[in-house]
Amino acid sequence: MKYQTGEHGTRRWINENDEEHIDAYWGSKKAWEEIPEIIHIDHGYDETKPESELTLEDMKRAAVFRGGSCDSTEMTKGDWKTPLKFTCQYGHHFIGSPRLILEGGHWCDECERKSWNYGNRAKKDKFFAQVWDPLHEPNELREYPKIVNELEIE
Question: Is the pTM of this model over 0.85?
């Protein structure tokens, strides 16, 4: 709970009516209030498969669902830890483990580095669009600059 109410906490933004952050994340306080308790998120692969059955083809489908590609040519079946190669919808190359991508929700670190470009990202990233589109207008393409860049922290 401390993380939710801390300096960068989403609960603090709601409690203090921090409209800039509320707008960036939910579109409006009203949209935040209308979020249902449980939302099923499609991850772009067969989630009913046991973890031990995850394959490179599953990862390739999940990457396409996110608007990019999985560029690795091999993967040990069921290996959720070894990083694979990916390309995002903007052509940036990066690596990430299946666990980081599928369960952590991470994607291209280059796209996330200097700003949040969620409106444009949602146009090609079906995974991300599931949480963006219900709360934002189709023409909402504002880019939100980041104040803190993890590469600038010493």
Answer: no
